[in-house]
Amino acid sequence: MVDAEPLVRVRGAAKAFGGVQALRDASLELFAGEVHALLGENGAGKSTLLKVLAGVHRTDAGEVTIGGGPFEQGSTRRSREQGVAVIYQEPSLFPDLSLAENVFIGRQPVTGRGAVDWARMRQEAAALFGQLGVDLDPDRPARGLSIADQQIVEIAKALSTDARVIVMDEPTAALSASESERLLDVARRLRDGGAAVVFVSHRLDEVFALCDRLTVMRDGATVRTSTVEGTDAGEVVRWMVGRELTDLFPKTETTTGDVVLRVRGLTTDGVFDDVSFDVRAGEIVAFAGLVGSGRSEVVRAVFGIDRYDSGSVEVLGAPLPPADPRAALARGVALVPEDRRQQGLFMPASIARNTAVVVLSRLARRGVVRERAERELAAHWAQRLQLRHGGLDQPVERLSGGNQQKVVLAKWLATDPRLLVVDEPTRGIDVGTKAEVHRLLSEQAGRGLAVLMVSSELPEVLGMADRVLVMREGRLMATLDRDEATQERVMLAATGQASVAGEGSAA
Amino acid sequence: MSRVLSWDRSVFVLLVVTVAVGAVVDPDFAGGSNLGFVLQDIGEIMLIALPMTFLIMTGEIDLSVASTAALAGCVLGWAWQASGSMAVAVLAAVGTGVVCGAVNGFLVTRLGLGSLAVTIGTLGLYRGLCYALLGDTTVADFPAGWTNLGFSSIPGTPLPYVTPLLVVLAIVFGVVLHLTRTGRWVFAVGQSVEAARFAGIPVARLKFRLFVVTGAVAGLAGVVYDLRFASARPDGALGFELAVIASVLFGGVSIFGGVGTMWGVVSAVLFLGSVRSLLQLQGVPGNALTIITGGLLLASVVIPVVAQRWSAFRERRGRALAAAAP
Prior knowledge:
The structure holds 2 protein chains of 2 kinds. Helix content of chain A is 33%, strand content 25%. By secondary structure, chain A is an alpha/beta fold. In chain B, 75% of the residues lie in helices and 0% in strands. Chain B has 13 helices and no strands.
């Protein structure tokens, strides 16, 4: 399998976006005729590294070679010409063109007279599909094709351009079991045909079934490269999470009170299934799991942003009507959403306006919103959350990410909630502000607020939560108490390796 | 645009300059009777521009307003002939506007269709209903007491009777937009529908009500129009939607929603009226005036883009120069 000279070599690659160091010291060696797994937690730098190969990003430092010569970066077109093809999780085909046209888009074979050579195009597409071992009609339009089949078309396209390196970015995330199985077969055929295949997946079972070698990344750097043979899942998980837990998370001990939120059998077909849990006053409950495991969707349904198909949500003992955020607000539920720029804030509006928007009726007298009351409210919260700003009239779009997040928190805390739902409360904010947010949440829980937190950062989950709910593919896989929640157990439950202690229902 | 001279202030300055220049160029222009003429000329446009400001602020639009006004005008004539009561006829006309707006609002907020497409459709539909109702005929026998309201002035002033209506409604709409919860919601929805939903703002209900209010005011404008011309015609208010939207956009309301002021829009309508009157006094033929409306519309869409590109260019050049410096 392993030739002497790697086909692709990345050494010491670094890349920063603004202040965020996405890659620090990434290395990767790909050989012709291998399937190579690229693993790491969310935010470990996998996508950035892949995008360097795809020609989307250019490294700030480090060396990338292909076929022994330098790899020309920063152009998707040049990447393809150098033999790199990327298959994305959700390909974008032209829905009204035939599969054959999609495969040869922009490079249609022509006859001697300059017309498109339809017969040849059809033939070659059929040959490619045959080579991949799939039964697809080259004449059918792409519209209505399953995601799995769309990926196959993309792979055929890659083959038709003589790609030597085929990168698959979480290709099986949206596929059923049998579709995934077929894709793994296709990947094996590509390897046997002499290509270097990069396989990104969070499903460790697939990695072990398919790959020859694996590279684990963490915090923008390559931690380890090893052969799959002789490695076990537990080791891989430890390499992935291996950082030290810091004492950034000052969890205050609290006595828990009554059940504030009771969720039973919550189901939305194809999104999440039979999710049940309770959150009590004074308690911080965290949803852990991989991106796409359905955590955000559950909290959105609880708050009423999305409808759910079946199940029930109760707040303080009374049922909460579905799909009605106003009702949720009136009953003391607040949701700090995942995407603060799109969902949490009105970017061009001022700090004061953003802080007050949910409680306007309280600030109005005879229908007129009192601007002074609005400013007093904003000033109060700005001080409590130590907001760093250039005046309360400053548009929030000019604040840093951390300070923006504080405005979102202020806006929801101003509603004086009984249950605070926070979705990725510290994503993309600096370490100092992170600690402040953690202190604030902990302090609010200490005063009897029920907190439900979705977080993809394991240290945050383990440091803050009284209880950890682990989700995978829309199902609650484990409920772990504070003293039984460890990085390994959470990751194993989240990636579907082995069963773990704790039952999959409500505590 | 520079930060000191915001768009709405610029429009106000432009209005003042136009009036000043007009007064110098043509002594008739600044006369009281011409002021009355201008107010009468732009009355319906000003009326409809008030709720249209709200709609465009939320990222929606209503192109059917002129057809709605015309249909309400036809219903006024028809109901007057049928009932013999102007009070009943006015109520029927405004009610027609409410129904027209509700249909638009239903299609946009309940069925989730784009307001541009929906209201282009109802623009044709409502106009067609005008012809269905009145055929090619014209109702011209409104009682003189009512039509006098339309074209004579308030005694002792050069101002038409529509003036107090304009002033009161402009103040009401301005107060609601800038001082109340509803107004804050309008800004919020325009800035981010998604964030508005997360903030518990009833987005669909708000938009539906804005469509209804727009229809009602357009219906009222249809009544004003009929009284001004002392007749109800199926081709009334033709093309007014263009002038209304041009004024709203030129008044500084962003076509993408979320940005704008009521006094910017009012200034823009008055500016449009002044330019039209000035050109008319100079003997420019009436149908050439559409060019002005079209030009304003283009200017309000093009200028912000050009301004933004310019400042982006200057910033890039600034950075490049800074990088080149030793």
